[in-house]
Amino acid sequence: MLDLLSYDFMQRALIAALLVGLAAPMVGIFLVQRRLSLIGDGMGHVSLAGVAVGLFTGNQPVATALIFAVAAAVLIEVVRARGNTSGDVALAIMFYGGIAVGVVLISKADTGTPTNLDSYLFGAITTTSRGDVWTFAVLAAVIVVTTWVLRPRLFAVANDEEYARATGMRVTALNIALAVLTAITVVVSMRVVGLLLISALMIVPNAASQLLTGSFRAALRLAVVLGVVASVGGVATSYYADTPSGGTIVILTIVFFVLASVLSGMLARRRGRRQEHLDEHDHEHGAGCGHPAIRHGDHVDYLHDGERHAAHADHWDEHHIVAAGQKEER
Amino acid sequence: MSGSSSGSGILQLQGASFGYADRAVVRGVDLDVEPGEVVALLGPNGSGKSTLVRGLLGLNEHLGGSVRLFGTEVERLRDRYRLGYVPQRHTLSASVRATVEEIVAIGRLPHQGWFARRSRADQQIVRESLELVGLSDRAQEDVSTLSGGQQRRVLIARALAAQPDVLIMDEPTAGIDEASQYVLADVLHRLVARGTTMLIVTHELAALRDVVSRIVVLTSGRVIFDDTPAAYAERRAADELAHTHGGHHHDDELPARRPTPTGAHGPVDHLGAPDA
Questions:
Q1: N or C: which end of chain B has fewer CB within 10 A?
Q2: Membrane spanning segments where (chain A) (predicted)?
Q3: Nearest-Cα residue of chain B relative to residue A168
Q4: Is pLDDT larger for residue B240 or for residue A34?
């Protein structure tokens, strides 16, 4: 691991990977929640046109990509807010138009070589310059802080937009904010994972964490951990295995997803076995249901035919009554 | 729940119209609701019940007339959380995990600054709201694992957590099994005992029979009845009588009474008994 850190370009690559691994799943969970998992992909397409315009006109590709991506983000939300059926087609035209313009312009730019196009599409982290890393660090900090501040409201809007609107929340503004955060994430990540793969780093760690957690809070935390491990681990792996960083990172996230599926399947089977003997329960215990309530740690058990019933998910667990004497022996 | 409104009514509508863009669905509605009242809003499908409440909530357009909420013009009302909305369907997104507590805590957001996180007081109010709907035991569970009736109670708790001055419920009993309806009726009784003002859009008056203090009937976007449940039952009985004996007509008869395309499931057929 140490020889890897002795190279400047690898240090920069690992820092960039850390930032991207942190920011992408944080934004991604709200996209999953709003069922917009593929929107980052579309923004990646449009960003390519931005990169091309930058290269063609001799401007900073990161800056032009950012402008294009943010413009696309706002446009997408406006189209979605109108909610007409042709909106879907409008988005498709915008996304494919973006990638087509990108490919054509890059081929005509001075620096336009196939390698150059590849590096934007699939990531070329080792070519990240010192200036790039600073830009990415600032942008990543903006994403992380803004997402953290907006988190409760983004959650509320994605969970129930109508209710959020009824309580006076600025729903449209929050939706645009999320779209812009997505756009910035796409641009920050383009050197690390590439414009065609960025969406995966936003979505797949969340898909994996959803399988293993029971709350939004826990799911978000685990997704960020998986994102950072996949991103940094992917860059390190790509150094030793001599593979492209973007693809390596995404394969790692998918490995995590498969492991999470297997693990959650095993956990579900174990739970199933434990509860097989429990009867179906047509009565819902509650305050004043007639069954004596007993406080039991962090919850309440209800005494029912000599058994203690505790609510758990969609069923009732038996919490066995243990006499004081027996407890000591165990 | 109540409290902060200064003597003025909860809702004051005069000739109010609501609808979409240029099409008014509800026209010329006069309605005053005072603190502590529990109003059932009845009417057949498409009569404009939902449009009316969604108009109050700012989800449909207010097209005309005067609408005052807590003494303030509806367009000027800033503290919209004072209207505690309990939506019709469970509109909760189930695409990611979220615990019951996390959902109910959304109700606290209007009281929190941008940088604030849930305070101890917020937690306490969330806990109390969950207790009121009988879901304290389920606070840490994923909402998507709950039954339809329980999810409905989560939505009530979310509305209560906002500490509103009136609860606006859209079809709270629709589509949930009978056992859950009893639990829900219990919850509503508890709210009535606390003096909570409620506006309940419903098809099934039977389930709410002893909860409501006033009945408003809407047909084709207009209010055609507005009185106590006793007066409503009387009118229904008289109406019934007139129809079974044929011919004999009263001028003030309820037009809503006639069979609707929804047939036996029609809205006002459940309160037939004159014993109310």
A1: C
A2: 12-31, 62-79, 91-109, 133-150, 171-188, 219-241, 247-268
A3: B80
A4: A34
Among the partner-chain residues A29, A32, A216, the one whose CB lies closest to the CB of B102 is A216
Query: CATH class for domain A2-256?
Result: mainly alpha
Q: What is the pLDDT of residue B184?
A: 86
pLDDT at A207 over 50: yes
Q: Backbone phi, then psi, for A244, in 5-degree steps?
A: -65, 135
Which letter does DSSP use for residue B214 in this model? E
Q: Residue for token digits 């032009």?
A: A64
* CA gap B225, B35 in Å, rounded: 20
User: Which residue type occupies A288?
Assistant: G
Separation CA B268–CA B259 (nearest Å)? 10
Residue scoring higher pLDDT (A245 or A115): A245
How do residues A120-161 score in pLDDT, each as one tens digit?
Answer: 888 877 777 788 888 889 999 999 999 999 999 999 999 999
Find the angle CA(A270)-CA(A272)-CA(A275) to the nearest 5 degrees.
110
Please name the residue that has the structure tokens 């008869």: B253
Q: What is the mean pLDDT of residues B234-260?
A: 60
Q: Looking at CA atoms only, how far is residue B242 from chain A in angstroms?
A: 43
Give the architecture-level CATH label for domain B11-255: 3-Layer(aba) Sandwich (3.40)
> Which residues of chain A make contact with B138, given a CB cutoff of 8 A?
311
The two structure tokens encoding residue B145: 């694992």
Domain ranges in chain A are 2-256, 293-323
